[in-house]
Design brief:
Elements: H1 13-26, H2 30-44, H3 58-61, H4 70-92
Length: 95
Amino acid sequence: MAKTEVYQIRLDSDEKKLAFAVFRQLGLTPAQAIRMFFRQVVLTQSIPFQIESKSIQPSLLHTPVSDKSATVAENEENHHDIFTELDQILNSDKK
């Protein structure tokens, strides 16, 4: 059995009640729903739904790759390392 950990979060009370009601209608416990979310993040290596913001400045979205700051490039490299490490962890269970 895989090692498990406890992780606590703070939620808006009304949002929690509404979400938990949806989980009940779907036949899920809140814990099952959260585990499903985390599993999809790992499997897809992304947030499993579209995230949008009306405050994003369109002019900043089309910055040429060569204009990226060193920090942005460094963060992208770190993300790649994280996903490589996740793949190794997930695949080690299959051996």
